[in-house]
Write a sequence for this structure.
């Protein structure tokens, strides 16, 4: 009987995620679910990305955090609508929270919806939110062993971004280890290396995004 | 009825945690539950700490990861017993896993048991494992906003370690923001700043640990 209860909860979650996806697709909005450890640079990357996509591609953001509106404040001056979702003690965003967040957006005025998930390499990976693609960030200070240690997160990624590459040399970061681990787990998704601080490599990420939007 | 099921699971977890604590206390072992985001430097800190505590204080480690034995391998040459616990898709260590891990250790030959939890700033905080104290790591590259964004993790800490301070200046890390946020959440636990790479500040951490062990 316990199994039935759990199953029905997960089924309801997946159904709601599909409803979100159908609604976003019908409105011509591409939804990107961005996931990573805390402090990998999700918000900083969006601060660079949202203006770079204009005027051709208009963004909005649903940003998830346990507490505070700090990320939404950082994204508030970019001319894009931003909705902060506070999960309380919740370790990931849920499709119900996305459905609620979408109500605050004018989907006809948006081309791409960035969903900035709670900083966590484990739980968010288990929940479909209704996104069209998952983008995973991995920052150099986290160490070059994280792909192997958190494989589920990387398995479903459409793109993987190695961030904070300006620190790579100082940290003696082993890119080959990452590429080798990824080849066992996800050999399809492109691995893009970039630094939001110096701007190195961000153009390839913008180009990849534009290609997804115009598909 | 669903509430009853959930409650009984949590009660069973807490009961098992208390049994772990009673067993460790009776054996004269101090158990420290170390928690942080992925890549904050838990394993590197233990690599420095375990030899530094010898000969007076003998360590053992239970190390949790979803996959791989990489952390246990890194800790394998220090002369301390190490047990790797793979949680699969589990986002935190559980008291049942600790009870199982302890079976592999000779508690009479140990003074301090380090439990290196799964890298995750959310879920591990919700589970008592039977530890005597919680130590939380926070690394400078994660950003100075993490105390406010993940308050539950820091509320129960006996000590908080700001790691990778060798990068603080380069990253323009705002220590005052961290101290201000901590003053709202946990004003009792000492905040110790250190770099495992340069060795700066590690002596204060070793001294704090020795004081806990001899209490």
């Amino acid at each position: 009987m316990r199994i039935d209860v759990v199953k029905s909860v997960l089924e309801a979650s997946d159904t709601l995620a599909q409803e979100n996806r159908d609604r976003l697709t019908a409105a011509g909005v591409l939804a990107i679910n961005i996931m990573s450890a805390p402090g990998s640079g999700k918000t900083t990357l969006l601060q660079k990305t949202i203006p770079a996509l204009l005027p051709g591609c208009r963004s909005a953001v649903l940003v998830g955090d346990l507490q505070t509106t700090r990320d939404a404040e950082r994204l508030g001056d970019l001319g894009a609508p931003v909705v902060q979702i506070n999960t309380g003690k919740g370790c990931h965003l849920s499709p119900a929270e996305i459905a609620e967040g979408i109500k605050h957006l004018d989907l006809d005025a948006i081309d791409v919806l960035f969903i900035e998930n709670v900083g966590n390499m484990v739980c968010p990976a288990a929940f479909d939110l209704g996104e069209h693609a998952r983008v995973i960030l991995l920052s150099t200070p986290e160490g070059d062993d994280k792909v192997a240690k958190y494989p589920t997160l990387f398995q479903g990624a459409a793109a993987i971004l190695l961030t904070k590459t300006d620190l790579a040399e100082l940290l003696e970061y082993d890119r080959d280890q990452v590429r080798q681990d990824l080849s066992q787990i996800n050999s399809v998704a492109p691995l893009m290396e970039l630094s939001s601080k110096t701007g190195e490599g961000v153009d390839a990420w913008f180009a990849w995004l534009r290609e997804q939007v115009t598909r």
